[in-house]
Amino acid sequence: MAKITFVTQSNETITVEGNSGNVMELAVQNKIKGIDGNCGGVCSCATCHVHVEPSDWDKVGAPNSMESDMLEFDEKVSDYSRLSCQMKISEDLDGIVLKVAN
Amino acid sequence: MKNSNIPDPFEKARLEKGFGEMDDQNDPVVMALRHKDVRRCAHNHKTFQSGAEPGRIVIPSEVNIRDIRQIPFEVDPPMHGEYRAVVEQWFKRPLEEAYTAQLEKQIGALVEEAITKDSVEVIKEFSLVLQSRALTLLFNVSFSESETWISWGTHVFRSEESALDASKANILYDYIDAQIENSIKNPGEDFYSKLLAAEVNGKKLTKEEIKGVVILTFAGGRDTVINAVTNSIAYFSEHPKSLERLKKEPELINFAIEELIRYFSPLTQMGRVATEDTQVCEHAVKADTRISLNWASANRDANVFENPNEVVIDRKMNPHVAFGFGTHNCLGATHARQILKVLIHTLIEKVSSIEIIDAKENIETLGEFKRKVGFDNINVKFN
After folding, report:
1. Which ipTM was obtained for this model?
2. Number of cross-chain residue pairs from A and B with Cβ atoms under 8 Å apart
């Protein structure tokens, strides 16, 4: 079980719990605004872009090369960008805060 | 070779130099062929603009047959974002349950009808009909409008005889004018009424702007959806095991959709106009000349995709650019994905096999390259 907090563009803070799957799916299930997951999680659409709270970066880890390639040309990329479809839910993510990029 | 195979004509040029060249009505195009270059150029909208003369970023160019600017497609940021914000939510309606239920009803009826026939010409009798009917949902207009759209044939701007047909475009423009007038008189819940009520920067959209959005909605999703649907039918006809697997493992359907779209790349490329002297893959590009973002080539780049020329139905990591990339990514992608999703579910449920009787390929000639994009016609039997 991992508690994950999303902060949307309109500064709404929503904390949800997940057991399995990826963070994008969890966000879509909970209708988090700004996370659409249009491509269903194959790392193609970048509509699940989040900025990880810097203090949580070590818990989350850096993107792999394909994901960082997709992020490289995203309008809203930061040093703490991840595509949430590539973040597998596990206990390691418990307590993290993610700012929705769009 | 199987009918459903779509070869990659760009491989050699992509590996050797990274760009291709073609002429198009004396307005030549330098094509970016590599995945990274395509993404880089799509991202750099200041140097590679969409807001050029209307019709110029389309290949083949439509400058001689169209004066109206397609919106938000032919607009650059920041104005692009203002327009896009007006229509974004509307184009997410395909995710709503009621919309999907309607789509299921439409496609279910079409497949059931196809099963009763000895032979179905997929382009005209199946995909065009499916696309037109589904578009009534996107416009939120009466189902009967689809009959008019079907009567226009497979191309909105193109006729069978010539690649660019102004008379055909006028049929569409006159039709749209009439629909807008109609919605002014009788506002309702349709797309025209929605656009008539919309504001950008505190100002109502002009009729010209509304027309620009509507033309984009008609043109952008016509050939592309028809090719995606037709190519899917051809693929499942020749790969019945894939359909069986999706039946057993429906959780893979989403991966299958993205993979089919990558493999088909229904839109080969999209142009941009250079605003300054620049380069694509170290090839000089002069200001006010055209480049293209070759989605089809990028989607076969072996640096990104393992076994790029194979349909890997459960491909998990699939950063394809078949719906474009960046700011201008396809507005109709949600609608298109939902169509393919419902189509696959319907085939799984109702069809045991599909036999191809005969087929004629549709080959685009792009300078030195010849690319199969789908079929001119393909007769099949649904069982």
Report:
1. 0.93
2. 52
